[in-house]
């Protein structure tokens, strides 16, 4: 019997007829609905809290500023001053930051005062030292000056008892400043989400090893481990696993025991060597996620011994897009930080593209001269394009004809701003 090849189909890249593909938004809504925080809580000193997720709202113990103080170096006194010249006798002594003046400034008198000094009783207004003349006993200046000029009111920034940071906040350096200024030394934060990363495929070899014919270096694992670290998660490197069901089962067992989430790449479709999807399906906890997304198919989502598994596609570009669009917001939710989608903004396109309807598309992009440029190839194995890109342009589910200068849908930043040495 002779085997004849099937005729090539014109629509071999078209979406299957009569099969329903889940739109990206629906898939995201489902994840958002079903996932919840899984991480425990601990109390950490401020110096160790950067990047952690705040477990409960932080409340100011102290107002900022705690008492009225001077915003400048100058001379303090009570009340507003009309237009015209003023001459006030100076009291002996001064008020400096951390060294307050203990006495009352009598009505009609002024006191030497430095930036950050608490305003002594009897002073609520400060004139800048550049705007006065002094002879050692008196200070002379011109009005007008409003009451409270150059002074900071107690609590004008934060009042004691106010909520300064909400639960779920990922702590920034400035948040730590705010917590410290308002009298907090420790914060209740969530333990980092533990993410296990597994690469699958017989073809993969470790960076640095000798690669034989048909073998490729594992590109996804270094990328995904680094990405998880950037997100503030605790990474567990579970290594490379061959396309062998028992080995993969063992790796998943170990990962499920040690991590809160498992990220695998490769082996997620329905082929002979697609053991991730096969195992998840056999475990009875696999969702058939046929998401209308490019690049990104296939994506296998399932539970392994109670631990969510994101079975990412093997192609590095698809693996990254699926991580950013699906896994990242989902993991944010599990980490206690809430659902955090990438921040996008609209910009004019520097490219042309005719996009077919039916699925959402993400193009590797970067912003230059205020316009979105896209990588020259859309091939989902092109790792150089991932490295070139600084963001993704999102094209809508429906058809789109894009010409240079048209405003394109959100461009979201991948990891940093412009990264192009001269
Ligand atoms: P798969 O999803 O396993 O069918 O893999 C799809 C494509 O991605 C194949 O060309 C694989 O060789 C490639 N691939 C899978 N895993 C990796 C990886 N960790 N690094 C680089 N390429 C990979
Ligand atoms: Mg494979």
Task: Provide structural commentary.
By secondary structure, the protein is α/β, with parallel strands linked by helices. The chain has 4 domains: 21-40 and 192-334, 3-Layer(aba) Sandwich (Molybdenum Cofactor Biosythetic Enzyme, Chain A), CATH 3.40.980; 44-64 and 156-190, Molybdopterin biosynthesis moea protein, domain 2 (Alpha-Beta Complex); 69-152, Molybdopterin biosynthesis moeA protein, domain 3 (Beta Complex); 347-412, MoeA, C-terminal, domain IV (Beta-clip, Beta Barrel). 39% of the residues are buried. Strand 21 and strand 22 form a beta hairpin. The protein has helices spanning 24-34, 173-181, 220-230, 245-258, 275-282, 316-334, 383-388, and strands at 22-23, 41-45, 58-59, 69-70, 74-77, 81-95, 110-113, 125-128, 133-134, 138-145, 151-152, 163-165, 186-190, 194-200, 204-205, 216-217, 234-241, 261-265, 286-287, 291-294, 300-304, 307-312, 344-348, 353-355, 360-368, 371-374, 391-395, 400-402, 407-413. It contains 7 helices and 29 strands. The longest helix is centred in the C-terminal third of the chain and has 19 residues, at 316-334. Bound molecules: adenosine monophosphate and magnesium ion (MG). Residues 199, 201, 203-204, 216, 218-221, 265-268, 313-316 line the site of adenosine monophosphate (AMP).
Topology:
Elements (H helix, E strand, L loop, with lengths): L21 E2 H11 L6 E5 L12 E2 L9 E2 L3 E4 L3 E15 L14 E4 L11 E4 L4 E2 L3 E8 L5 E2 L10 E3 L7 H9 L4 E5 L3 E7 L3 E2 L10 E2 L2 H11 L3 E8 L3 H14 L2 E5 L9 H8 L3 E2 L3 E4 L5 E5 L2 E6 L3 H19 L9 E5 L4 E3 L4 E9 L2 E4 L8 H6 L2 E5 L4 E3 L4 E7 L9
Parallel strand pairs: 1-20, 6-7, 14-17, 14-18, 15-16, 18-22, 20-25
Antiparallel strand pairs: 2-13, 3-12, 4-11, 5-7, 5-8, 6-10, 9-10, 19-21, 21-22, 23-29, 24-28, 25-26, 25-27, 27-29
Helix pairs in contact: 1-6
């Amino acid at each position: 019997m002779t085997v004849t090849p099937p005729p090539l189909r014109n629509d071999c890249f078209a979406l299957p007829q009569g099969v329903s593909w889940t739109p990206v938004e629906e898939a995201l809504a489902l994840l958002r609905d079903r996932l919840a925080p899984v991480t425990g809580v601990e109390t950490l000193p401020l110096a160790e809290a950067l990047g952690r997720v705040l477990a409960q709202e932080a409340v100011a113990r102290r107002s900022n500023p705690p008492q009225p103080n001077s915003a400048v170096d100058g001379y303090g006194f009570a009340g507003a001053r009309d237009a015209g010249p003023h001459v006030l006798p100076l009291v002996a002594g001064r008020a400096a930051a951390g060294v307050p003046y203990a006495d009352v400034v009598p009505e009609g008198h002024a006191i030497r005062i430095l930036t950050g000094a608490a305003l002594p009783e009897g002073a609520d207004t400060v004139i800048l030292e550049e705007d006065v003349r002094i002879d050692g006993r008196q200070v002379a200046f011109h009005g007008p000056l409003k009451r409270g000029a150059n002074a900071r009111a107690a609590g004008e920034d934060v009042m004691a008892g106010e909520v300064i940071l909400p639960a779920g906040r990922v702590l920034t350096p400035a948040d730590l400043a705010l917590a410290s200024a308002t009298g907090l030394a420790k914060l209740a934060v969530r333990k980092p989400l533990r993410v296990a990363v597994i690469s699958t495929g017989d073809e993969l070899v470790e960076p640095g090893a000798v690669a034989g014919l048909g073998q490729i270096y594992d590109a996804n694992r270094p990328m995904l481990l680094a990405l998880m670290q950037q997100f503030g998660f605790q990474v567990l490197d579970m290594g490379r696993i061959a396309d062998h069901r028992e080995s993969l089962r063992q790796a998943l067992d170990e990962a499920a025991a040690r991590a809160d989430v498992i990220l695998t790449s490769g082996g997620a479709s329905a082929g002979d060597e697609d053991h991730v999807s096969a195992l998840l399906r056999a475990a009875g906890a696999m969702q058939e996620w046929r998401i209308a997304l490019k690049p990104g198919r296939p994506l296998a989502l399932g539970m392994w011994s109670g631990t969510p598994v994101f079975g990412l596609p093997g192609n590095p570009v698809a693996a990254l897009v699926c991580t950013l669009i699906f896994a990242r917001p989902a993991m944010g939710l599990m980490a206690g930080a809430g659902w955090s989608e990438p921040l996008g903004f609209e910009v004019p396109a520097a490219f042309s593209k005719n996009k077919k309807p039916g699925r959402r598309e993400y193009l590797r992009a970067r912003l230059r001269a205020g316009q979105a440029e896209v990588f020259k190839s859309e091939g989902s194995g092109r790792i150089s394009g991932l490295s070139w890109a600084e963001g993704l342009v999102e094209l809508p589910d429906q058809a789109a004809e894009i010409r240079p200068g048209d405003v394109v849908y959100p461009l979201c930043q991948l990891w940093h701003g412009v990264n192009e040495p001269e």
